[in-house]
Automatic annotation (TrEMBL):
Residue ranges crossing the lipid bilayer per the database entry: 15-39, 68-84, 96-116, 146-165, 185-218, 230-252, 258-278
Presence of the UniProt keyword Membrane in the record: yes
Major localisation: membrane
Protein name from the UniProt record: Zinc transport system permease protein
GO CC terms: ATP-binding cassette (ABC) transporter complex
Record organism: Eubacterium ruminantium
Locations listed in the record: Cell membrane; Membrane
Length: 281
């Protein structure tokens, strides 16, 4: 069977189409917040929260919850708020807080998955959680519905508060002086980031989700210099790379998370070279 016929066969199944929609929505949401997080130097918050989500997912598995997101989502959101508060503490800097929470969550999660193993193949479960499902087709209908609802909510929130996010991203002190409640919007950014992390774990895993947030933003910044342009171009790059990555993973049976991230890496190098040729520093 040639590639075209194989792809047409896959797309004839509704669950494949749903999976592609989920992937595109997650990539879109990740790119929206990615620009803000990179400019505010919060890039590593994705790693910290993804490890927290891994720990929460391990606890949910031990508790045998029907849907691990019922526990993973609120725990990750609370951790995002906690990270923000700890980052404002002069005794515990933001990067130290992220490192503490990240390492502790990863260690606890891995320990629980081994001690309370419900399956013989614990290493397989851990790899699937850390690096994403081997096949995008393993997503359940409940995961699809949750992703669609939360993704739409994230997009609407970003559009409504776009000007506020722009203000706290570039000059937080000036934003405060003009009456913008920067702490509130920083908190909102942290909460949305937590939601995106949990959604993205089903697609690329906890160790690779940061790439979905960072690479499209960095790629766009190589070619565009204004905030709105970077956000729009980042969205385009992220969605295209996610679509290509998912299709390639289905056609050639490669891990979907790794395939998407490698596609994002290729896009970054293309933008980097294009920026150098165009003389954009």
């Amino acid at each position: 069977m040639d590639i075209g016929a194989k792809l047409q066969l896959y797309l004839s199944y509704s669950f494949v189409r749903y999976a592609i929609i989920v992937g595109i929505l997650i990539a879109l949401c990740s790119s929206l917040l990615g620009v803000t997080l990179v400019l505010k130097r919060y890039s590593f918050i994705g790693d910290g929260l993804s490890h927290v989500a891994f720990g929460a997912m391990a606890i949910a598995s031990v508790m045998k919850l029907s849907n691990v997101n019922y526990l993973t989502l609120p725990v990750t959101i609370i951790s995002a708020i906690l990270l923000l508060r700890l980052g404002q503490n002069t005794k515990i800097k933001g990067d130290a807080a992220i490192a503490m929470l990240s390492v502790a969550s990863l260690a606890i999660g891995y320990m629980l998955m081994n001690v309370f193993a419900s399956k013989a193949n614990v290493s397989g479960d851990v790899c699937s959680t850390l690096f994403g499902s081997i096949s995008i087709l393993t997503l359940q209908r409940s995961d699809v519905n949750l992703c669609i609802v939360l993704s739409i909510a994230v997009i609407i929130i970003f559009i409504i508060f776009y000007n506020r996010f722009f203000a706290v991203t570039f000059d937080e002190n000036f934003a405060k002086a003009t009456g913008v409640k920067s702490n509130t919007y920083n908190l909102l950014i942290a909460v949305i980031t937590a939601v995106i992390i949990v959604l993205g774990m089903n697609l690329v895993g906890s160790l690779l989700i940061s790439a979905l947030i960072i690479f499209p933003a960095l790629s766009a910044m190589r070619l565009v210099r204004n905030f709105k342009g970077v956000v729009i171009f980042s969205m385009i790059i992220s969605v295209v790379c996610a679509f290509i990555g998912i299709i390639v993973s289905m056609l050639y049976n490669t891990p979907v998370g790794s395939t998407i991230v490698i596609t994002d890496m290729v896009a970054f190098f293309i933008c980097f070279i294009a920026g150098k040729i165009a003389g954009i520093d």
